[in-house]
Amino acid sequence: MPLSEHEQRLLEQIERALYQEDPKFASSVSGNRMSKPARRRRIQGAVVFVLGLVLLVAGIPFQALYLGDIPVLSVVGFLAMLGGALLAVTSIGARGQDAEAEGGAEAPKDPKSGGENGGFTGRMEERFRRRFEQE
Fold this sequence. Notes:
This protein is an all-alpha fold. It has helices at about 5-20, 25-30, 35-60, 70-90, 95-105, 115-135; strands at about 65, 70. It has a two-stranded antiparallel sheet. α3 (about 35-60) runs antiparallel to α4. The two termini are about 25 Å apart. About 5% of the residues are buried. The model is unreliable at about 100-115 (pLDDT under 50).
């Protein structure tokens, strides 16, 4: 369902206000959702996972690579799958860490508002109230 003209204007106004108030945050949430290092880690994790799956399956027929009754190649494949999955999953939080590294020090938390998220949401709620009081 498309937005009405009034809703589009309100959305643009909110977007402009966000860029004016906190340009660093606005640039981090706009455009590309995942940074290049996080995307690269996710792709690497997927490749390692698939390679581990191949090793896991390929280790069964190779009787020469058994250590007693343990298929060593399959165990290595399983460990590679586990490592690849961890690499891919941990890349989810890498986007926020990359943004912190680019921006420098972390903003101090406001104890009254319950941290930086509470402060941001509190400011947004206050602006929302002021806009409706003005109209």
